[in-house]
Specification:
single chain; about 250 residues; Carbamate kinase; 7 helices; nucleotide-binding; UMP kinase activity
Length: about 250
């Protein structure tokens, strides 16, 4: 599989879809909404019909962020807080599993930490086999270690599973020069290099994730999943969002 196909000729065979925890929430950004989960599942089902193999990494911010407990005044140790955040991603993954199965997809939740009552333990070869059998694989608990974000987990799993691209789903149309929800004059970038992202300090993914993708030439496509049909467009290689790759 090519690590860095040209944006005009993308034809993905395997992708990592990175969803935030807030993507499953209602307008308040908290909890899990059956409506939101169902809409995402329907888009993924449409994309899956193309034959593309899809693995999903979901954050846990709609339930708990480790950063909520950071600081000297917190009674929870920071490493413990990150562990709590990893468990929040497991909850979201189980919800996403049912949403996907409700629209007829076969799925597997695979956790980076052993939690056999609820999910398979992540094993690279087994995950690849699930994908080859047309199952959607939902990757929970980050990479199993504290101080690692789900952005970095998405980059790590994309490398391990030899995904063609990381599809970073957001609620805006791509990467902007500034926050478009606050600055109406913010400019949408059609494409960026990894170096651009780092030098401009653009809040696409955390620095570790960008560094991993840069080192291994793993492309990223940032797009608005809230627009119906955009997951299908992203997977099929249509022009959508912001492409991040080699200069």
């Amino acid at each position: 599989m090519s690590n860095d196909p040209e944006p005009s000729s993308l034809q993905y065979q395997r992708v990592i879809l990175k969803l935030s925890g807030e993507s499953l929430a209602d307008g308040g950004g908290r909890g899990i909404s059956g409506v939101e989960a169902g809409q995402i599942a329907a888009q993924i089902a449409d994309a899956h019909k193309s034959g593309c193999q899809i693995a999903i990494v979901i954050g846990g911010g709609n339930i708990l962020r480790g950063a909520q407990f950071s600081g000297s005044n917190s009674f929870v140790q920071e490493s413990t807080a990150h562990s709590m955040g990893m468990l929040a991603t497991v909850i979201n993954s189980l919800a996403m599993q049912d949403a996907l199965e409700n629209v007829g997809l076969q799925t597997r939740v695979m956790s980076a930490v052993p939690i056999e009552k609820f999910a398979e333990t992540f094993i690279r070869r087994r995950a690849i086999r699930h994908l080859e059998k047309n199952r959607v694989v939902i990757l929970a608990a980050g990479i199993g270690n504290p101080f690692v974000t789900t952005d970095t987990a998405a980059a790590q799993r994309a490398l391990e599973l030899d995904a063609d691209v990381i599809l970073k789903a957001t609620r805006v149309d791509g990467v902007y020069s500034d926050d478009p929800e606050k600055n109406p004059h913010a400019v949408l970038y059609e494409s960026l290099s990894y170096k651009d992202v780092i030098e401009k300090n653009l809040k696409v993914m955390d620095a570790t994730a960008i560094a991993l993708c840069h080192e291994h030439a793993k492309p990223i496509l940032v797009f608005n999943f809230k627009k119906d049909g955009n997951i299908v467009k992203a997977i099929s290689g249509d022009t959508v969002g912001t492409w991040i790759g080699k200069a």
